[in-house]
Structure formats: C-alpha cells, structure tokens
TrEMBL record:
PROSITE patterns: LRR, TIR. GO terms for biological process: inflammatory response; innate immune response; toll-like receptor signaling pathway. It comes from Loxodonta africana (African elephant). Keywords: Glycoprotein, Immunity, Inflammatory response, Innate immunity, Leucine-rich repeat, Membrane, Receptor, Repeat, Signal, Transmembrane, Transmembrane helix. This is TIR domain-containing protein. GO terms for cellular component: plasma membrane. Belongs to the Toll-like receptor family. Its main location: membrane. Pfam families: LRR_8, TIR_2. Residues 1-25 form the signal peptide. GO terms for molecular function: signaling receptor activity. PANTHER family: TOLL-LIKE RECEPTOR, TOLL-LIKE RECEPTOR 11. It is found in: Membrane.
Length: 920
C-alpha cells in the first residue's frame, strides 16, 4: 500500500467498521417493531396490529406514504407486517425483502396492485386489505397477482369494492376468504371475481382438476347483499358460511346451488324464526343465530334439527324453550343461551335425556333459583356457564348428576354462603369461577369433592379471608377483593404446585402476621392494586419471602409508594411489568438502582407511571440479558448522558410510550442514538415532547429541542470516536509495519471484541488469573516487586497465574492477536499506569480492550488500575472514559511512603482475589 493510499484506505475501513458496529439505523418514524413473545401485553402500550397465533416479530407502520422508504428500514426477518397510510400503487416485488413474512395487513387507501407485487412471498399465509370506514374504496387486483402466494391460507377484503377486478385467480391453498363491508349486492358477482372458486355457469370459468374448496367464506357486514341468484354458488365446496349483518334471507340459500355446508352464521340478521328449512337442507352441524329477535320457539319450529351439534341463541330475548327442545336436537353438543330471559327459575325442558350436550351457556339470564336436579337430564355436561345471573342459593342437589362437569362458572352472582359439600357431586371439576360473588370467608374445605380442581377464581366486593386446607391440585388461583385479602396459613406448604397467582386488592395480609406462605412452584404472579408492602424492604413484613421459580411478575400498585419496593429472592425472573395506577400521586422518584439490583435473569422490563426521574446508567447495571425496555406514562423523565455508556448493551427493543421528557441537553445523545442505534429498535421518541420545568406547558417536541438548543452532541461523538479510535490506532500502527498481514489480525481482534460486546464469554476458558499490562519503562518495578508478590505460591505470595506479554507471549507470536486472546482468557486485568504508560500505544490498546470488556460486563471486576505515580484523574477520564465504569476500589495508588506498603499489598491482593473469585 502506498503512503498516499493509506489514509484513504483507513477511512474506507473506518466507515466499513462503523457500519458494522453502529451505523445500522432501525428506527423508522411511525413504525413499531416488536416481538410479542417477549411481552404478550405489548399491544396495551404501543401501536400494534392483530397477529395470527404463533407469529411474534412484527412491524406496524402508520402514515406510510413512501412505501419503499418505509420498507428499507425494517428488519428482513419480520413475520408480520401491517401498513397504514396512503399508497396508490403497490409496485412489483414490493415485499421481496421479507422472505419470512407470514402475515401482511394493508390499510393503504385506494389501491392499484401491480401483477408481481407479491413476488417472493413464499411463506405468506394471511393477506388482508382493509379500509376502516364502511364501504367502499376501489381496489384493483390483477388476475394473476395472488399466484406467487403458494401457501396463502386466508385472504380478506374489508371496506373495498372489487368491481374493477375480474377473474382473480385464487391460490389452491386458500381456505378462508373474507369480503366484508364491500359493495356486493348479489352473490352472483362472486362468479366474475373468483371464477376458479365459483365455476357456476360462468363462461370464463377455467376447468380445474381440483374441485374448488373453501373452509370459510365470510360475507358479513355487506349491507347491500340481498340477492343470491339461482345456482350462483354451484360447484363450491364450502364448510362454513358467514352472513352476519346482511339483509339476505337465509331461505334463499336453498336455491344457491350450494350442496354442502356444515356451519352457518346468521348473527344480527333480524331473524324472528329459526331457519329450520335451511338447517335441514344442508344438514348443518353449527348454526349461530346470536343477536336476532327469536323470542319464541314453538314445538312446531323444531323439525329439521337432527344433525345440529352447535346452536348459538345468544341475545335473542328468548323467554322459554319448548318442551320438545332437547329431544328435537338429539346431536346437540353446545347450546349457547346467554343474554336471554329464561329466569328467574330455570326450567329446562323435560323429556328425553340429552346424552350429547357437553356445553351449556346460561349466563346473563336473570336466573335466581336452580331447582334440585336442574341438570340431571344432562349427564354428559362438561361446561356449565351461569355467570351474571341472580343466583343466591346453591345446593349440592342443584348440581346433582353432573359427573363429568369440568368447568363451572358462577361468577357475578349473589352467592353469599356456600355449604360444605356443595361440590360433592362434581368429582371431575377442574375449573371453578366464583369472581364477583359475596363470599367473604372462604375455606378450602368448600372445595372438597372434586379430585382434580386446578383453576380457581374467587372474588368478593370488600374483603376476602382465605382459610386452609387448599387442594394440592391447584395450579392457578385468582383472588379479588376491594380492600384486603387475608391468607390464614398455620403451617406447611399449602400451595405446593401453584404455578399462577393473581391478587387484586389494596392489601394482602397474612394471619398470623409472623408467618410465611411458600409458593415453591409459582411462575406467574400478577398483583393489581396491591400496596408495595407486599415486597417490602423489611424481610419480616414481606408477604412473599422468596419465589425461586418466579419468571413473570406483573405488579400494578395503586399506592404511589413504590419507592420502598425492592425485589430480591427472584433468581429466575425474566419478565417484570411494574406500574403505579395512581396517576395523581406525587410520589418520590423510584430508585431503579435499588429496585432492580438483584434480578440477574431479567429479559423484559416494562415500567409505567412510576415517577422515575432521571435515568442514568447505574439504573441498569447488571441487567446484561435485558431484551426489551419499555417506559410508559412518565412525566418529566430525564435521560442522563451517562446512559450512552449503556448503548453497546442496550436491549434490542426500547419503547417510550406517553413519555414527557425534561428539556435538557444532557439527553442530546438520544436523537443520534435513536437514528443510528446498533441493532436496537427504538419507538416513540419522534412524538415525544419535553418541558423545561414543572410549569412549562408548551409542547416542545423533544428532538427539535435537542437539535435546536443543544450544541453538537460531543458526548456521543466522542463515544463513537472512542469506539472506533482504537481501530484507527491499530490500522495506522499496522500500516506502519508493511510486513504484517494486517487484515488477518484485524479480523482476529474484531472477533474477540465482538464476542465480548455480545457478552458471549465462555466460562471455562480462563488460562490466567491476571493479565498484567505495563509499559517498558515500568518494567523494572513490575518484575522486581509486583510479580513476586502475586505469583509466588502461598503464603509468601498470592499464588496467582499471571500473564505477562513480555514473558508469556511466544517468540514470533503476533502481539496484537495474542494480546486480545490473552485478555480474553484472563479473569481480570491489572494495568500498571504511569505518565509514560499513558503515552504508549500498546498500553493504550490494552487499556482499551479491557474497557470494552468492562462495558460488556459491567459490575464485575474486570479491570484494576494501579497508579505508580499521582496522575490527574481527568487526564484518564477524558481520554478513556473509564471513570464511570470503575468502582472506587478499582483504583489503587502506590503509596509514596513506605510506611503504608503493607496496607497497599493487602488491598491489592484482596481486590485481585475478589475479581478472580467472581469469575469462578
Ligand atoms: C395488560 O396490561 C393491563 C394494564 O393495566 C392489565 O390491566 C392487563 O391485565 C394486562 N394483561 C395481561 C394479559 O397481562
Ligand atoms: C403523516 O405524514 C405527513 C407528512 O408525510 C404529516 O404531515 C402528517 O402530520 C402525518 N400524520 C400523522 C397522523 O402522523
Ligand atoms: C361497483 O358496484 C357497485 C354496485 O354494483 C356500484 O354502486 C359502484 O359504483 C361500482 N363501483 C365501480 C368503481 O364501478
Ligand atoms: C319449509 O319446508 C316445509 C316442508 O319441508 C314447507 O312446507 C315450508 O313451506 C317451507 N318453508 C318455507 C318458508 O319455505
Ligand atoms: C356464547 O356466545 C357468546 C356470543 O357469541 C360468546 O361471547 C360466548 O363466549 C359463548 N359462550 C360459550 C360458552 O362459548
Ligand atoms: C335477585 O333476587 C332477589 C331475591 O333473591 C330479588 O329480590 C331481586 O329483585 C332479584 N334481582 C333481579 C335483578 O332479578
Ligand atoms: C408467631 O407469633 C405467635 C404469637 O403471636 C407465637 O406463638 C408463634 O410461635 C410465632 N410463630 C413464629 C413462626 O414465630
């Protein structure tokens, strides 16, 4: 390389390295990128979009106008993408960037789609075109546009007119087609739109070797769909048809040419009679007639229901059932009669025993009394829903004969007392819901009878006192009360296998107060409204002393006193959602440093309305595994400049929702960071505002304040510079030595850093205890004094395995590579510093390598500085930016008077011992 070429080359290299390390911009204004597997509740905080089960990584962008620009900023491995905005034309190969896309939801206004628009979407399963206001925008879909989608499973058009599109070829894999809020008036139009689906008598039909088949055809909410036409659906094999909210008369379907249909949904169609003829004609197994006006059913209406297995009559104003009802529906398995007027006394029709009914929903029917043996004609019943009625008395006789009942819902009734043995006739019960009842003293004895009760909900308006014994089979428990919940726990481990616990009350108490409850298997804990005392700093007052298995903690307090909170004894906690529901409280700022001190496994941290004050890097020390950080509903939040030290470790997802910042230049690194965050998805800064002081009501956008009022962000610049400066130093050093195959070394070095930055240190790889870095000028002291004191076997020395570059690097080994490798394989680094050392490029390099290690694993003693002579701290700080990372004990000063030497050696050995032990 010629001398002239070198600077150019290194500049190129530098920009290459920058792009590797920190130049990747993920933040896109108006886009949310999130992984819903990390925080299932994420849509509560940030704009999200409805996903399909099993999909996790999604991007949801609003206000899209330049499609290409929006898409380039999104990660390639997206599974779901939702776009909202105005894009008139979808160009060819618009989404080729995202080969793993499985769901695509487009809300782009009037839209013309180009033929190859969906090229390369091999894995797409769900495609939705949506327009929010009802009918209708125009959508032009070329005939072959869907052809590349070989695995398309569901296709949906909502709020669009498809008049101008014709002859759309549907992929064979399609099983669900939806046209809602369209301008469809006659089913006949489907023939022209999708000839392959509805060959009918259409002349354009292409004969296909496969009979057209659809699982679901959803034509709901087509307000003008009133005609069916004769034989329009002939040839279509259809499992389920939904015509909810259309003015279509069900009887017309008889002439449609459809031969098979399993399931028909006619919700909210104004029907006043059961559509018996249609049911009989198709031999329907599922019929949904929710929200109609079928107030009366006569015996004469009941012909033709022999095949029906599922019937939904939700919200019809039904007063009674005809006596022949159950015998006329011999196959019935699920009957939904919720929100009718069957009360106050339940009179299930007599007659034949229904041996098939498994699920009966009688919720919200104004029922007051359940006569004895009310359900004895339903011996196979597995689910009984009686919520929202007026039941006050429940005897075991009422539940007689339900030998197979698994689910019993009695929530929101007037039950005040339950008698012992009331569940004795329900041996198979698994889940019992008693939320919203009036039982204030609940003894575990009331649960005797069922052998496998595992899910229990209890709730009473004011207080709830719980007494043992509790069934050992319990896996989940949810308890609500307004003021307090009290657990009486004399002894033992009553909740041995409980995995999930939800408590909603102002206070949770123990009786007697000096007791403890153990939840050895608890993995999910949700607390709503509870006083933070439940996790009080005082061990003796803590409700949960230790929760060794806890992985998820959702804690919504309502007391504003979260500052006393400390979470310890939670070694497995992965997800922490913490919020204060009291939006008006003026509590003192929460001390995150204390709160999060002892949560080594934390991956998700969501904080709401906690009055966090100023965040600094110390708040997040030790959270090396954090992947998602969410700050919600914060007022006057400051982001300290020290936080930028955290950047290399910043979680992958950082969200600010509804956060008002302080207008301060300390935060000026935030803008450049959000735009160039290395591998971090930042959301919410563009829309955030800041305020100068408490009485500042001007809505100043945060980013424009920072760019307008703060001088160039020297801090971040210097951070990025220091991040890459070392690279430059090396490059120049290497370029100065033409014999070195510098690229190779650079690669080795980078590899080593990368592993460190990623925190992927391998445990058992330590060959040395201490790497000693010093420069030639200080060598005499190091060899004569330091080495013997540390290396000699006990008791004369400390018996440590030392690595000295000069001694331990083999002849001919390249110093750069070996340095990086040796630092990696040493438990700690001791830098011997003097003015001369600071001037030496090698010492600098070693110091810097150690610094990066420190950044990657803060809180551990990775680096000790030993000053041979007094050095102005600032000289060190400004250059190496180490001060923030080192604890005070990590600086050692060689005493100037020999009287203090003993103490010095003792201190040095103690620090080194600690550092070595930490790594073990
Ligand atoms: C989601 O967060 C809201 C916030 O109040 C809470 O009410 C709700 O229970 C949470 N849901 C889950 C599933 O955690
Ligand atoms: C959408 O973007 C335009 C500029 O492209 C902007 O003027 C408008 O305010 C944005 N609308 C919303 C709701 O963000
Ligand atoms: C589509 O058809 C509907 C009803 O037939 C009609 O009202 C509407 O004007 C048509 N739109 C276009 C763009 O042809
Ligand atoms: C239903 O079918 C019966 C005979 O099966 C017929 O008498 C009756 O008229 C039909 N009802 C309607 C509305 O078509
Ligand atoms: C009964 O139907 C209503 C309305 O469709 C639904 O919300 C409810 O979950 C159904 N009940 C059961 C037990 O499926
Ligand atoms: C509920 O039942 C009680 C008697 O048990 C009765 O006084 C009350 O009116 C009923 N309420 C309703 C809404 O039916
Ligand atoms: C709790 O206090 C009671 C007296 O209030 C005492 O009898 C009992 O031994 C104490 N139990 C424990 C575990 O300290």
């Amino acid at each position: 390389v010629s001398r002239m070429g070198r600077p150019l080359l290194s500049l190129t290299l530098l920009s290459f390295l920058m792009s590797l390390g920190s130049g990747w911009a993920w933040t896109t204004p108006d886009c949310t990128i999130a992984d819903s597997s990390l925080l299932s509740n994420i849509s509560y905080y940030i704009p999200s979009c409805p996903l399909a089960p099993g999909l996790h990584l999604f991007a949801s962008c609003s206000n899209v106008s330049d499609l290409a620009q929006t898409l380039t900023a999104l990660p390639r491995r997206l599974e779901a993408l939702c776009l909202q905005g105005t894009v008139p034309v979808l160009p060819a190969d618009a989404f080729g960037h995202f080969p793993t896309l499985q769901l695509l939801r487009l809300q782009l206004g009037t839209l013309r789609i180009t033929s190859g628009a969906f090229q390369r979407l091999d894995q797409l399963q769900h495609l939705f075109f949506e327009h929010p206001t009802p009918c209708c925008l125009s959508l032009l879909l070329p005939s072959d546009a869907l052809e590349p989608l070989r695995f398309l499973n569901s296709l949906s058009f909502q709020g669009y007119c498809l008049n101008s599109s014709q002859n759309i070829q549907l992929p064979l894999s399609l099983s669900r087609l939806t046209l809602r809020h369209s301008c469809l008036t006659d089913l006949q139009e489907l023939q022209g739109l999708f000839p392959s689906l509805v060959p009918g008598s259409s002349p354009t039909a292409i004969s296909s070797p496969w009979p057209p088949f659809l699982e679901v055809l959803d034509l709901s909410a087509n307000m003008q769909l009133s005609r069916v036409g004769v034989k329009t659906l002939r040839g279509l094999q259809l499992h389920s048809l939904r015509l909810d909210g259309t003015p279509l008369s069900a009887l017309e379907l008889l002439a449609s040419g459809l031969l098979h249909l399993d399931s028909l949904s006619l919700v909210d169609t104004g029907a006043e009679k059961l559509p018996g003829n249609v049911t009989a004609y198709f031999e329907l197994s599922t019929l949904d007639l929710g929200r109609n006006q079928i107030q009366h059913i006569g015996d004469e209406d009941l012909s033709g229901y022999h095949s029906l297995e599922h019937l939904n009559l939700h919200a019809n104003g039904l007063h009674s059932l005809p006596t022949r009802f159950l015998s006329a529906l011999p196959q019935l398995q699920r009957l939904n009669l919720s929100m009718n007027k069957l009360g106050p006394t339940l009179a299930l029709p007599e007659g034949l025993v229904s041996s098939n009914l498994r699920v009966l929903d009688l919720s919200h029917n104004e029922l007051s009394a359940l006569p004895s043996g009310a359900f004895s004609s339903l011996p196979q019943l597995e689910e009984l829903w009686l919520g929202g009625n007026n039941i006050s008395n429940l005897s075991s006789e009422a539940l007689e004969g339900l030998r197979w009942l698994k689910t019993l819902d009695l929530s929101w009734n007037q039950i005040k007392v339950l008698k012992l043995g009331w569940l004795s006739s329900l041996p198979a019960l698994i889940s019992l819901n008693l939320l919203g009842t009036y039982i204030e003293n609940f003894s575990g004895r009331l649960l005797q009878g069922p052998q496998k009760l595992s899910h229990l909900w209890l709730g009473s308006p004011e207080i709830l006192e719980l007494y043992p014994p509790w069934p050992l089979t319990l896996l989940s428990l949810e308890v609500w009360a307004q003021s307090y919940i009290q657990f009486s726990v004399p002894h033992g481990k009553p909740f041995q296998f409980l995995e999930s616990l939800t408590l909603q009350a102002s206070y949770v108490l123990l009786h007697p107060g000096n007791n403890t409850v153990h939840f050895p298997s608890l993995r999910h804990l949700t607390l709503r409204g509870c006083s933070p005392g439940i996790f009080s700093t005082h061990k003796s007052q803590r409700f949960f002393p230790q929760l060794h298995s806890l992985e998820h903690l959702h804690f919504w307090s309502y007391h504003g006193g979260t500052e006393g909170l400390q979470l310890f004894g939670l070694p497995r906690l992965r997800v922490l959602e913490l919020g204060n529901l009291d939006s008006l409280s003026e509590s003192r700022p929460v001390n995150l440093e204390v709160l999060l001190e002892d949560l080594p496994q934390l991956e998700v941290l969501a904080l709401s309305n906690l009055n966090l004050g100023n965040l600094s890097v110390s708040s997040f020390r030790g959270l090396g595994l954090l992947q998602l950080l969410l700050l919600n509903s914060e007022w006057a939040l400051g982001l300290d400049s020290s936080l930028q030290e955290f950047i290399p470790q910043m979680p992958q997802y950082v969200y600010f929702s509804d956060v008002t910042f302080i207008c301060q230049c300390e935060s000026s690194w935030v803008g450049p960071w959000a735009a160039r965050a290395p591998n971090t998805f930042v959301y919410g800064l563009e829309k955030s505002i800041c305020m100068a002081n408490a009485s500042d009501y001007f809505k100043t956008p945060l980013l424009s304040f920072l760019s307008g009022h703060c001088p160039d962000n020297l801090e971040l610049q210097s951070f990025l510079t220091s991040f890459t400066l070392v690279v430059l130093v090396i490059i120049f050093a290497l370029l100065g030595c033409p014999n070195w195959s510098w690229l190779h070394h650079l690669q080795a070095l980078f590899h080593a850093w990368w592993r460190k930055l990623g925190g992927r240190n391998h445990r058992s790889q330590y060959h040395y205890d201490v790497f000693i870095s010093y420069c030639r000028q200080d060598r005499a002291w190091v060899l004569a004094e330091l080495i013997p004191a540390l290396e000699k076997p006990l008791p004369a020395g400390e018996g440590l395995r030392l690595c000295l570059p000069e001694r331990d690097f083999g002849v001919g080994q390249d110093r750069m590579e070996t340095t990086a490798a040796s630092i990696e394989s040493s438990k700690t680094i001791l830098c011997v510093l003097s003015h001369q050392a600071l001037g030496s490029p090698w010492c600098n390099l070693e110091l810097r390598l150690a610094t990066y290690r420190l950044v990657a694993k803060p809180g551990t003693t990775s680096l000790l500085l030993l000053f041979l002579e007094p050095i102005d701290r600032r000289q060190l700080c400004s250059y190496h930016r180490l001060a923030r990372w080192l604890q005070k004990e990590d600086y050692l000063h060689l005493p100037q008077r020999s009287a203090n030497w003993e103490a010095f050696w003792e201190q040095l050995r103690r620090r080194l011992r600690k550092a070595v032990q930490e790594k073990e």
